[in-house]
Design a protein that fits this description.
11% of the residues lie in helices and 30% in strands. It is mainly beta. It has a single domain (5-170), classed as 3-methyladenine DNA Glycosylase, Chain A, CATH 3.10.300.10. Strands 1, 2, 3, 4, 5, 6, 7, 8 and 9 form a nine-stranded antiparallel β-sheet that branches. The longest helix has 8 residues, at 12-19. The two termini are 26 Å apart. The chain binds a DNA duplex through residues 42, 44, 51-53, 56, 59-61, 75-81, 83, 85, 98, 100, 107-110, 151-154, 156.
DNA sequence: TGCGCGATTCTC
DNA sequence: AGAATCGCGCAT
């Protein structure tokens, strides 16, 4: 079953955790399909989250984070890597989940390269029209198969936010 | 209008 | 350890 946008209408850490074990599916322009199990995610939630792009308010770049749940937020990092995020929570509340890894790719930049994703899909919704969606596994991986960790590369945020365990990793899946 | 830097990755 | 590489966000 394909996850509906309503699946994303809840706090980002909750969605980040719930996405583990689900399958990311990509329909390429030439019709080919790529699919891989999501193994690593990170949550960014709210204005107060100092690690979030939205912490200093709405800007042209982060505007998609303020959109309705299930939107695709793609931004360029370090001038060369696209980061894939899925918007969570209701409209006007900025929150998103960064996809950091799947069963056959490690790292958010390599993930988007593998799935042929760039700014073209920024702002679109998950689904057939965009050619990107999530297929549900049906069963939830038990908490024993999930570990949490601080988010990567967010030392610029205050210690309270930099140390939050909002990175979620599925154990026992090949990562890379 | 200019400048520092980043939710990274690859090579040396 | 350092480079690659560029748009964004804030300061001027």
């Amino acid at each position: 079953m394909i996850l509906p946008c309503s699946f994303f209408n809840r706090p980002a850490p909750e969605v980040a955790r719930a996405l583990l074990g689900q399958t990311l599916v990509r329909r390429l322009p030439d019709g080919r399909r790529l699919a891989a199990v999501i193994t690593e995610t990170e949550a960014y939630d709210g204005f107060e989250d100092e690690a979030s792009h939205a912490h200093r308010g709405r800007t042209p770049r982060n505007g998609v984070m303020f959109g309705p749940p299930g939107r695709i937020y793609l931004y360029l990092c370090y001038g060369m890597h696209w980061m894939l995020n899925l918007v969570t929570r209701e409209a006007d509340y900025p929150a998103a989940v960064l996809l950091r890894g799947t069963s056959d790719v490690s790292g958010p930049g390599r993930l988007t390269r593998h799935f042929d994703l760039d700014g073209q899909l920024n702002g679109q919704s998950l689904g057939s029209a965009s050619g990107l969606w999530i297929r549900s596994a049906g069963s939830d991986p038990g908490s024993r198969r999930i570990r949490t960790a601080p988010r990567v590369g967010v030392d610029y945020a205050g210690p309270q936010w930099a140390s939050k365990p909002w990175r979620f990793i599925l154990k026992g899946k090949r990562n890379g």
